[in-house]
Amino acid sequence: MSEAAEESLMRGATILRVSAIAIDVAACHNSTMKSLTVLFATIFICCLTSARGEDPSGKVQQIGTDLWKASGGENWPKVKELRFTFNVEVDGKVVSTAQHDWNVAAGTDHVKWKDKDFTVDLKSPPQEGDGKAAYQRWVNDSYWLLAPLKIRDPGVKLQSGGTKEVGGRSCETLQLSFEQVGLTPTDQYLLYIDPQTKLMCAWDYIPSSGQGMQATWEKYQTFGGLNLATEHHFENKAIKFSGVEVVADK
Q1: How far is 227 from 145, CA to CA, in rounded Å?
Q2: In this structure, what are the phi and psi dihedrals at residue 107, rounded to the nearest 5 degrees?
Q3: Which residue from 246, 221, 215, 247 is spatially nearest to 89, judged by alpha carbons?
Q4: For all residues of the chain together, what is the average pLDDT?
Q5: Closest CA to 117 of 93, 128, 101
Q6: Over the stretch 27-68, which tens digit does the pLDDT of each residue have?
Q7: C-alpha 115: how far from chain center
Q8: How confident is the model at residue 154, as a pLDDT?
Q9: 218 vs 59, which has greater pLDDT?
């Protein structure tokens, strides 16, 4: 596959969101983690209840809390390191991979992709060259892995999307939008939540360009107390995670 073709494919599989949770955790991972957790919880509740008329029963807040907990949100503060490989397949053939060795406590990610090999400082990411590309890889790839754990990030807004069907089952949905945060702040998402497991089973990606798509969230596995979807399927493509390892405090 040519480089131009691969870049075109990756644009279809790339969602450039910012992972504020990782930056904040890296900055003060140990002594202030409890206060950070309280802060995120407070921000989360404020975001969900600021327009109380839109959520008079607290249903949106409850769905979001259930999703976060089911995904292992309460265990995230214990995470020290996270390693994974992000693989893109087309018609069952791997066309792109990126390896990540993310030191959550230190706030760095060692990324290997194509012929590139770069350790990026997530607290002060480079603005050009391989460093910028490595940071964008981390933002995108980690969001496909951790999005349900990030609904408490500052600037994230949740609204009810109502009950909708996906994959033959009825799901509660949450609509995500953002208040001028991230690399693509005008993007929106519709999350489909399984009523039994409280985990995401799919999402609709809705970019401002209007050229969105629906992808599955499936093949959940537990790593260090985090419940993570290891596969996403859309059209003839798939994103699969391999080599996932979580190093966490007991």
Answers
A1: 10
A2: 75, 35
A3: 215
A4: 83
A5: 101
A6: 334 433 333 333 344 444 444 433 333 665 689 999 999 999
A7: 25
A8: 87
A9: 218
Structure tokens at 167: 């994959």
Q: Pull the structure tokens for residue 17.
A: 């969101």
The DSSP letter of residue 19 is: -
Q: Which helix (H) or strand (E) element contains residue 79?
A: strand 79-90
Q: For the chain, what percent of residues have pLDDT higher than 90?
A: 68
Distance of CA 76 to the CA centre of its chain: 13
Torsion (CA) 221, 224, 226, 228 in degrees, nearest 10: -30
**The two structure tokens encoding residue 90:** 């087309």
Does pTM surpass 0.85? no
Name the residue among 84, 188, 89, 103 with its Cα closest to residue 141.
84
φ/ψ (deg, to 5) at 40: -60, -40
| CA angle at 21 for the pair 202 and 63, rounded to the nearest 5° | 40
